[in-house]
Write a structure and sequence with these properties.
Largest sheet: 9 strands, mixed
CATH topology of the largest domain: Beta-lactamase
CATH architecture of the largest domain: 3-Layer(aba) Sandwich
Strand content: 15-25%
Number of helices: 15
Radius of gyration: 27 Å
Number of strands: 24
Shape: globular
Helix content: 25-40%
């Protein structure tokens, strides 16, 4: 199937399918969407809902939408084009391609960071920081190295390159820097001429596209946030990983090129076929070597959902979400672009409907007895590493999973969620019962520790005492702070402002309220509210220490006649204050150990 074969005008989706999709859109309370499908060389499109909710402007089938992270597939294809031309080598060390890049790689001697690792997202990088995404000070024309220059700590690798998958927007941003260093041109300009135009994607662009101002694109739908209000496009520090505007028809042209997999455009070689067929195939990671076929490779996921095993990429930016999948064997594809990013929307319902419509479902793999020793992996697991540096503590508290398996199956249970039944697939592999292929594999780490890989994560087993100690620290700290916030309000005479701990907590609450009132688009900026949060969180331990000093000198709080046998002559109330402050300080120490105290929102 060639690109030219789908160049003709698209047809409308069948009426029954349109009605079903409209019902789902209404039930999920989303503003609008565009949908396109490809099957048998025929493209069908449709539009639903509104392009701008306040004005009731209807969505059109040829409307443009933001594709978010689907940009990563395009950047990967651009790099593969240069590889096909002999201008780049996927196995070239990034240090030779970008010699000024200050990558902190503890495994440099044995595992240098390579170009391939950027496209596979196996480089060991953490995902975005707030300042790389939520900031009105970012501009569409800023140099790509501004994605790391304000804080070179984002270039610290957390795992040996090539060994683990970890979703990281910075990976494809660095890949675009490699592209620019190779072609001596902005990646957006080069890709428009050398990739998008040859593929017939004339309504798509990697350049910044917005709904407002002199350069506004009238065909671009508005994004909508949770409360339904419209939001204009925002510039990103990691724009090669998430800045992409497209249409449903253009995404089917791209799908046709990848389905054909011959790498030819207009009868001429364009990208080497073996590079195209490697897209979506995870390579070199411990999970892939252990037989886990689903995963990420060269800009595409192999996705196992609703009975379909497809090559996919999703995307999400402010106000938009998108999903694009193709099946080479069935020679079919679909694209959904929503102009809403409601957190509680069940987008999988739309995907399941299109999988059914296109007949992409396959029978699940048959069960095979697991290895006899799989029970040795049972226990609680934590992400290792966490996707975001700022969520390391939250992931340890709320992101744990429990594995309980034996040779005939078992369960994989998220903390606070329902158990997911596992079907053995032979050896140390299992598949979730609603998936068709192995989705989880049991591994051993470098030191022989039990690990699990699957669902886009790598996790390590944590001991019960270690996990309990984390919870104890958090609960103790919370109890101490709650005591300091409430008890001074109940005492007589009522003068809580004379209690340093209460005053510190009150100022922190005021700073937090100010932060909540500022626009969410400025969450990663240095603002008066974020500085106030930084100062009050940083000063909280000092306020607690001052409270300790004050309580140690206190003589009487209404029950002063009740003395404790400490030899210090302290009242019972003073001793309770000291104990609460001690607990709160322990909680502060835990937050500080995870880089959350003081809370510098512009660097997390």
């Amino acid at each position: 199937m060639s690109v030219s074969a789908v160049a003709q005008a698209a047809e409308a989706l069948p009426t029954p399918l349109r009605q079903q999709l409209q019902t789902l859109l209404d039930e999920e309370q989303l503003a609008g969407m565009v949908v396109s499908t490809l099957q048998g060389g025929k493209v069908q499109t449709a539009a639903f809902g509104l392009a701008h909710r306040p004005s009731r402007l209807p969505m059109q089938p040829d409307a443009k939408v933001h594709g978010g992270s689907i940009a990563k597939t395009l950047v990967s294809l651009a790099v593969l084009r240069l590889v096909s031309q002999g201008r780049l080598d996927l196995d070239a060390p990034v240090a030779t391609l970008l010699p000024a890049l200050p990558v902190d790689n503890p495994w440099q001697a044995s595992h240098p960071l390579r170009l391939r690792h950027l496209l596979d997202m196996t480089g060991g990088l953490a995902d975005i920081r707030l300042w790389q995404f939520f900031s009105t000070r970012l501009t569409p024309d800023q140099a790509l190295d501004e994605a790391w220059r304000p804080d070179s700590g984002v270039l610290r690798l957390r795992s040996a390159p090539g060994t683990q998958f970890s979703y990281a927007n910075l990976s494809h941003t660095l890949a675009a820097m490699v592209l620019e260093a190779t072609v001596n041109e902005r990646y957006e300009v080069w890709m428009a001429r050398e990739l998008l135009q040859p593929l017939g994607m004339t309504d798509s662009t990697m350049a910044f596209t917005t709904q407002t101002g002199a350069g506004a694109d009238g065909r671009l739908a508005w994004g909508h946030v949770d409360d339904g209000s419209p939001v204009a496009a925002m510039a990103l520090a990691v724009r090669p990983a998430g800045q992409f505007t497209t249409t449903g028809a253009d995404m089917m042209r791209l799908a046709a090129f990848l389905i054909a997999a011959d790498g030819r455009v207009g009868g001429q070689p364009f990208i080497r076929p073996e590079l195209l067929t490697a897209m979506g195939r995870p390579a070199s990671t411990a999970a892939a070597e252990a037989g886990l076929a689903t995963g990420y490779g060269l800009g595409l996921f192999t996705r196992d959902r609703h009975g379909a095993l497809s090559l996919c990429h999703g995307g999400a930016v402010a106000g938009f979400e998108a999903l694009w999948c193709l099946d080479r064997e069935r020679r079919a594809a679909f694209f959904i672009g929503w102009n809403s990013d409601r957190e509680d929307a069940r987008h999988g319902r739309f995907e399941a409907l299109l999988v059914q419509h296109l007949g992409l479902a396959r029978p699940p793999a048959a069960a095979k007895p697991a290895a006899a020793d799989v029970a040795n992996w049972n226990g609680r697991y934590l992400p290792a590493p966490s996707r975001f540096e700022s969520t390391r503590l939250a992931d340890r508290l709320f992101g744990s999973w429990t594995l309980d398996v034996h040779s005939a199956g078992g369960n994989w249970t998220p903390w606070g969620g329902p158990a997911r039944s596992l079907v053995p697939q032979g050896g140390h592999r299992f598949r979730q019962s609603d998936r068709g292929q192995p989705t989880l594999v049991l591994l051993r780490g470098e030191r022989g520790e039990a690990m699990v890989a699957g669902f886009g994560m790598t996790l390590r087993r944590i001991g019960v005492l270690e996990w309990a100690a984390l919870w104890a620290g958090v609960l103790a700290g919370g109890a101490g702070l709650l005591y300091g916030a409430l008890v001074p309000l109940l005492r007589r005479p009522w003068a809580p402002w004379r209690q340093p701990a209460w005053l510190g907590l009150a100022l922190l609450a005021a700073a937090s309220a100010a932060l909540a009132l500022q626009p969410w688009q400025r969450l990663g900026e240095v603002t008066a509210a974020s500085v106030a949060v930084a100062v009050t969180t940083g000063a909280l331990p000092l306020a607690l220490l001052m409270q300790v000093w004050r309580s140690s000198l206190a003589q009487g709080h209404g029950d002063a006649a009740l003395r404790v046998g400490t030899g210090l002559g302290l009242s019972a109330a003073a001793c309770r204050d000291l104990a609460a402050c001690g607990l709160a300080l322990a909680g502060c120490a835990l937050l500080a150990a995870f880089g959350l105290l003081p809370l510098l929102l512009w660097s997390v």
